[in-house]
Every structure is written in structure tokens, then in C-alpha cells.
Specification:
The complex is a heterodimer of chains A (503) and B (109).
Chain A lengths: L2 E11 L6 E10 L7 H21 L3 E5 L14 E5 L6 E3 L15 E4 L4 H10 L2 E2 L11 H6 L16 E8 L2 E6 L7 H6 L3 E4 L1 H7 L8 E7 L2 E2 L1 E10 L5 H6 L3 H8 L7 E6 L9 E10 L23 H6 L4 H12 L13 E2 L13 E9 L3 H14 L5 E8 L12 E10 L2 H17 L3 E2 L10 H22 L3 H6 L3 H5 L5
Chain B lengths: L1 H21 L4 E4 L5 E12 L4 E4 L12 E7 L2 H9 L4 E11 L6 E2 L1
Antiparallel strand pairs in B: 1-4, 2-3, 2-5, 4-5
Helix pairs in contact in B: 1-2
Classes of the chains: A alpha+beta (503), B alpha+beta (109).
């Protein structure tokens, strides 16, 4: 059986140290060495189904754990059975015989639920393929990042869950293979995976972003594009307030020409100090996509601008010395973020995967976000920074851009989105300042959503209001997949119950 | 000569304060491309100014068959206070590590 028990009941703490499961019994789902991926996943899925039955009999709730990355505590459930999937991390090529007619198998890969975004990226690159977007970090499992709607960062793309073409979900009642109504994989392949096909657009849209509430995801079919290079430009520039209007209007070329290269950028990120955001230099990062070539000069992740952990080390100082927050944050931005390459520096290149980093938090992390309609950026951003700074927020504020993402519960639900992140050292003052930002946006009538995986303090009423009809559709799909309330409760937790996802 | 005594006392205090702060520094060693599992940790106490070291538990972790991703060595505030109060005779430090999940070759379905 590929599930092994890891020690006795005890405490488990998530990756960023924001939540702890007490009296949790830990299990690990591990990859086997079957020659064919379908055989291995079929065995694993059956084991998971049996394990769910045992958990039910033991009257314990269950929680799948990937990298345990989410600071929002959607992965926290005390007195539960935890299923670690990190060692269930193999990836498999898909042959043309395994897909339905008209589907390009060469773009697809079968991924076990414990594979990290980094691993998926590497395995695609081995095949001359690439993910087309992802978040800033790559240390989440792909399944976990998709399950929480990790926002992407390429201007013309949606979220990481947009890569998913099919998903295998195990519940006590069955092993389900969920894909769009048009179908992706052949019936024979789905049967060989030990699954029953559910070809349904509504179920698929719910399963693309399940927030860990629809069952245990064991495998995914992930789509890709041909491998490409990106050229990063990263610099510190004072940004003119008027430039927000360009960004709000989608005039990224104009913004890029003013602060980096006179080319269409594929990625734009602006990290500002909320204390005088337009008087102090902002850290700007641009990526310009180019066709792949093998002979590009290799650069280290640091040279490509990955990583920004030094920021978190200043947490206590920022919390304790409010008068120094502005200069300290500016110092942290200079020290903590990789410097360059600027416009005048020799160009460096990397694949999409090479520009990402698995950061290791050495201090307590706070992170939260709001996703707004990009058109509201100009009127919202200064207000957000002012309120956040006034109430002592001690993190930088980051803006990135993306298109509407797939999945009924995708936070990026506007046609064009500006994602505003508050990432940095944790303190109660910062959490309170973020709460004031939320109040301010509500008071100003600016629509926004919040990230499922971040410390955004959502509740069921708010989720229902934010997602409206899509939330009702998601719950309808959930009830079709998990008609037995006892099974819905099995995947619940205090956090998920409060979000209205499992109750 | 009174001022010299005070100066030496101040110097000693600053030295202790420096040791207290520096002892809590996080020494962090990682491989280039980590694929980590959960963090495990244990406390190792050096005794007799390093003549003897006793781990509170054997240095094993249930999932370490693919090696380790990273190791951290640091002392907590309490551990540094123990060190200072015992004139360094006891030197507890925390060793934390994360095992590697393993990198498996691309397979076929």
C-alpha cells in the first residue's frame, strides 16, 4: 500500500508557520515504481479511497497536505488525519493513444498530486515545453497551487489552474476523473487509472479550484506551451503617479518604455514602499518573452531576479519602530530583492522555470492580497497605500497583472486584473492595517476578491457576496460530487466550514 | 581607577550581549534545488565547553532516504540564556532539517 503512517499523533505546523494542527495523525502517500503511470496512480487512488474509509470509521476528518504552503490555514485541521502527498511526485508523458481525437498529447503531462510547481516546470522543460504562467514561488505542489487559485503573473494569462485539463479526485464514494464535456483522455485510459469519467463543464470548473474541499486530488493532466526564454529587467525607479493610469488602461508598452525597454512586456511587477510610494523608488520587474534557443548564457536564479527573503528578517524592527518604517522598508527592498539586471546591463535570459524560486521563510510571514479590476487601479492604489501606511502596515505592496482565470472560485474574476499583494514580516499591526485596506475598499465601493491561500480572513457571507452566482454553481457541483453530507464533512475543517465550502 | 572598573564592566556586558544576540543567528545550509518535506528538529546540547555532545534523539528522520534539502542551526533565546548562565558549560542548540522528497525521472503513462 503506498500510504504509510508517519509516527504517532502529534502537532504539525505549516510551511510558513502560520498555523498548527494539534493531535493530528500524519500519513504519507508515496510514489511507487510501477513501469506505467496509469498503474501506479490506479493503485494509489484505490489506497486513498480505502484510507478515507478508515478515517471515516475512526471518525476523523482528513486533510490533504502538499507542501503545506498556504498561510491562510485552509490546510489546518486539528484532531484529523493528514495525508502528505509530497512524495507522490512522479510525472508521466502522455502518448497520442491515451487522448481523445483532436487533443494534442505532446502538450500534456500526467502529474501526481505531490509534484511541486518546480518539478512540473522541470519535467516540461525536459520535453521542450513550459508552463505559461505561475506565481512568484515554485515550492507549492501544483495541485495545491491550483486548488487555492494561485494567481499567475503573465499579463496575457490567467491563473496556474488554467493549465489543468483533467483531474482525478478520490472521495469515499468513488474515484472520479473530471474533465470538460468535450473530453480529453480516452475512456480506456481513464478506466486503467481506476477512475470513472465525469465529463462535465460545471464539475470541471469547480474541480479546477477546489480549495481542498471536494476530495483528495491524486493526479492532474497539465497543459503546456513550447518552451520560451524570458529576459528580465529589474530596477529601482521613482514611478510617476500618472503611470498608474497607463497600467489601469493596459498600456504596458508605454509603462515599459518609460522605465525599462521600449518593447511589449509579458510581465510587469511593481513593488512599492507604501510610505510615500511615489516619492521613494519602486522596485520594477519586467519580463520580455523571446523564442527559445539553446545557446543562451545561463544565469543563476539571483541574476534572473528570483528570491526576496531578506525582507522577512526585518519584521521585528518594522513592528517596534514605527517612526522608521518608511526608511527600513526601503532599505529592505534594496537589500532583499535581487538587484538588476537593469536596461544597461548585459542581457541575461532564462526559461520560465529558472526565474522562479523556492523561498525559505526564516521569519514569520504575513501575506494577504486583494485582486481588483485593473481599471480601478488608479483610483484604488494610492488610497490603499495611504490607509495601509497610516495603520502601520509593515510590508511592501506589490502589484502584478493578469487576465481572468479559470475555475468558478478563481479570485482573478475580472476581465483584466490587478493583483495587489501585501507580503512580508508578520505582525498584528500589519494584519490590522490590511483589515483597514479591506474596509477602505468596501467604503469606496471598489470590487475586489481575496486569495484563498493567503491570510485574508474571509468568511462564508463574504465568499458568497464576492463570488455570487459562481459560488452557488460551485456548491451545486460539490453536492453532485459529494451528495452525502457526511462525506462533505469528512473533507471539512473549521476554516473551510467557516468559508462555506464544506458545510 | 573607578572609571576603568566601570569600563571593563560595560565591556563585559556588551560582550555578553553580543554573544546572546549572535548565538541566535540562523546558520542555514541548503542544496541548490530543494524539494523539501516537512521540517524536523532536535536539540543538541554541548557539554563541558564542547568536550561532549549529546543529541536528544538519534539523527534520523522517517523520510530521509533521499537525503536532506537543508539544515539550520540556531539557538533560541532560552538556549542562549542557559549558555550564558552556565558560563558556556551547557550549550544547547537547535538543529532543524528538511528531508528531500526525491527527484524521479519522467515516466510514461
Amino acid at each position: 500500500m503506498p500510504i504509510v503512517k508517519l509516527g504517532d499523533e502529534g502537532r504539525w505546523t505549516n510551511y510558513h508557520g502560520t498555523g498548527t494542527c494539534e493531535a493530528a495523525t500524519r500519513f504519507a502517500l508515496r510514489s511507487g515504481d510501477a513501469e506505467r503511470g496509469r498503474d501506479e496512480i490506479a493503485i494509489a487512488a484505490k489506497s486513498v479511497q480505502d484510507w478515507l474509509g478508515q478515517a471515516e470509521a475512526a471518525k476523523r476528518r482528513v486533510r490533504p497536505l502538499g507542501a503545506g504552503w498556504s498561510p491562510s490555514n485552509v490546510n489546518i485541521c486539528s484532531q484529523s488525519w493528514l495525508l502528505h502527498t509530497r512524495r507522490f511526485n512522479r510525472c508521466f508523458r502522455i502518448g497520442a493513444n491515451e487522448v481523445r481525437p483532436g487533443v494534442d498529447a505532446s502538450a500534456l503531462m500526467l502529474v501526481e498530486a505531490g509534484a511541486l510547481v518546480d518539478e512540473v516546470s522541470d519535467k516540461f522543460e525536459e520535453q521542450g515545453r513550459s508552463l505559461w504562467t505561475s506565481g512568484a514561488g515554485n515550492g507549492q505542489t501544483f495541485a495545491g497551487a491550483a486548488a487555492t487559485g494561485t494567481h499567475g503573473s503573465m499579463i496575457a494569462c490567467g491563473g496556474i489552474q488554467d493549465h489543468i485539463r483533467a483531474v482525478q479526485i478520490v472521495t469515499p464514494a468513488g474515484i472520479h476523473w473530471i474533465e470538460p464535456a468535450a473530453g480529453v483522455m480516452s475512456d480506456a485510459f481513464i478506466a486503467a487509472m481506476g477512475s470513472v469519467p465525469l465529463r462535465d463543464d460545471e464539475l470541471f470548473a469547480a474541480a479546477q479550484l477546489p480549495v481542498g474541499s471536494l476530495g483528495i486530488v491524486t493526479a492532474l493532466v497539465v497543459d503546456s506551451v513550447p518552451k520560451f526564454l524570458v529576459r528580465p529587467i529589474q530596477n529601482l525607479r521613482k514611478v510617476d503617479c500618472a503611470a498608474l493610469d497607463w497600467l489601469a488602461a493596459g498600456e504596458f508598452r508605454r509603462f515599459s518604455a518609460a522605465y525599462a525597454l521600449d518593447q511589449d512586456p509579458d510581465f510587469v511587477q511593481m513593488i512599492v514602499n507604501p510610505y510615500k510610494p511615489f516619492k521613494r523608488p519602486a522596485m520594477l520587474r519586467f519580463l520580455y518573452r523571446e523564442p527559445w534557443r539553446d545557446d543562451y548564457p545561463r544565469a543563476t536564479p539571483g541574476q534572473l531576479g528570483a528570491g526576496y527573503d531578506a525582507l522577512s528578517l526585518l519584521g521585528r524592527l518594522l513592528n517596534d519602530y514605527p517612526w522608521a518604517r518608511g526608511p527600513l522598508l526601503q532599505f529592505a527592498m534594496k537589500q532583499g530583492y535581487a538587484s538588476g539586471p537593469d536596461v544597461d546591463a548585459p542581457a541575461v535570459y532564462g526559461s520560465w522555470g529558472e526565474g522562479l524560486d523556492t523561498h525559505r521563510p526564516l521569519a514569520d510571514l504575513f501575506n494577504a492580497s486583494v485582486t481588483i479590476d485593473r481599471a480601478d487601479l488608479a483610483r484604488a492604489f494610492e488610497r490603499i497605500c495611504a490607509v495601509y501606511a497610516k495603520h502601520g502596515g509593515s510590508t511592501v505592496v506589490t502589484v502584478r497583472f493578469m487576465e481572468r482565470a479559470q475555475g468558478l472560485l478563481a479570485p482573478a474574476r475580472f476581465t483584466h486584473n490587478a493583483v495587489i499583494d501585501f507580503d512580508g514580516p508578520r505582525s498584528q499591526r500589519t494584519a490590522d492595517a490590511y483589515a483597514h485596506v479591506v474596509e477602505c475598499l468596501d467604503a469606496e465601493g471598489i470590487g475586489f476578491t481575496r486569495h484563498w491561500a493567503k491570510s485574508c480572513h474571509l468568511d462564508a457571507v463574504r465568499v458568497a457576496a464576492d463570488y455570487g452566482e459562481d459560488f452557488r454553481r460551485w456548491r451545486t457541483a460539490r453536492d453532485r460530487l459529494l451528495p452525502d453530507p457526511a462525506h462533505r464533512a469528512l473533507f471539512g475543517s473549521e476554516v473551510l466550514d467557516n468559508l462555506g465550502l464544506t458545510r | 581607577m573607578m572609571w576603568l572598573g566601570w569600563a571593563l564592566a560595560a565591556l563585559g556586558f556588551v560582550l555578553l550581549l553580543g554573544q546572546y544576540a549572535a548565538g541566535q543567528a540562523d546558520i542555514f545550509l541548503s542544496i541548490a534545488n530543494p524539494r523539501p518535506l516537512d521540517e524536523e528538529s532536535m536539540v543538541v546540547t554541548l557539554k563541558g565547553w564542547g568536550f561532549a555532545a549529546q543529541a536528544a534523539q538519534p539523527f534520523v528522520t522517517p523520510e530521509s532516504d533521499h537525503g536532506l534539502c537543508d539544515v539550520r542551526v540556531f539557538a533560541t533565546r532560552r538556549q542562549m540564556l542557559v549558555t550564558i548562565a552556565t558560563f558556556g558549560f551547557l550549550r544547547p542548540v537547535t538543529v532543524a532539517w528538511r528531508a528531500h522528497a526525491g527527484i524521479l525521472p519522467l515516466g510514461d503513462v
